[in-house]
Specification:
With 260 residues, the chain is mainly alpha-helical. The chain is 61% helix and 4% strand. The protein has one domain. A hairpin with a 2-residue loop joins strand 3 and strand 4. The longest helix is centred in the last third of the chain and has 39 residues.
Length: 260
């Protein structure tokens, strides 16, 4: 019974994650849902809207970063069963994302507006960003990343051992998932003040959060990750010289110690 409950918990967390992801896509794209980034609840003043929105983003960022740290995980797994640690993180992040979308106060004043071919190109870029973000999770281990594999195996930690996998996009940028999100956040034919606030704030958060993530990876995997980092840029492809495909400083990048 305990095993079944753990698996059910993992499924619920994963289902909520998928739902929050799809809702966020529609919310940011101003489509399919009534409450969007530009058609959300109105605030009493622009200042109040900015304050509410920043508080929502700050709450999401704090949860997202604090629960991802190793020290928190060590403390947290004294309270909850280790196999559901990742699913609990995913569940909390999904609820936080829903809170941002549903609690957002719209600031509809237009900063820029594209038309014709330019607008079409921006829509293509918007969807391209989401595809890159989602595809990046499958390039490593999607179900491990979102906690399902841990609940099925009744264990904690990654399923494939300490392996640094650098397939496809990971050969050109260290964090393609985050790159995809940044593209999606900025690609819009109509940039409003509210959308611009969201794009600027989330981009700054991503850059800062990746510094913490990089420190964790360096601490855990040492020279192997340092070599990878020297050759492959963090977010912008082509900003560093790359080694031969599949190798980092002479090491086979598909078979060196690494994250998840």
């Amino acid at each position: 019974m305990k095993r079944l409950l753990v698996i059910l918990y993992g499924f619920v967390a994963y289902a909520l994650c998928v739902a929050s992801f799809l809702y966020a896509v529609a919310w940011l794209g101003n489509t399919l849902v009534s409450n969007t980034i530009d058609r959300g609840a109105a605030a009493t003043s622009p200042g109040a809207a900015i304050a509410v929105n920043l508080l929502l983003l700050a709450a999401f960022a704090i949860q997202h970063s604090v629960m991802a740290r190793s020290a928190f995980k060590r403390w947290w797994t004294r309270i909850i069963p280790p196999p559901i640690e990742r699913s609990t993180y995913v569940l909390a992040a999904s609820l936080g994302l829903f809170a941002v979308c549903l609690g957002w106060r719209s600031l509809p004043a237009v900063v820029w507006q594209a038309h014709g071919a330019a607008a079409s190109a921006l829509w293509v870029l918007f969807w391209f960003g989401w595809v890159v973000a989602l595809a990046s999770t499958f390039m490593i281990d999607h179900f491990d990343l979102f906690g399902l594999r841990q609940t099925f195996a009744q264990r904690t930690g990654p399923g494939s051992g300490p392996m640094l996998k650098t397939p496809l996009l990971y050969r050109y940028v260290r964090h393609p998932l985050m790159l995809g999100l940044v593209i999606a956040f900025w690609a819009t034919p109509q940039m409003t003040v509210g959308h611009l606030l969201f794009a600027v704030t989330t981009t700054l958060y991503i850059v800062l959060a990746l510094q913490l993530e990089e420190r964790d990876l360096l601490r855990e995997f040492g020279a192997a990750y340092q070599a990878y980092r020297k050759r492959v840029p963090m977010l912008l492809p082509g900003t560093k010289l790359h080694c031969r495909a599949g190798h980092v400083d002479g090491i086979d990048a598909d078979h060196v110690p690494g994250p998840r």
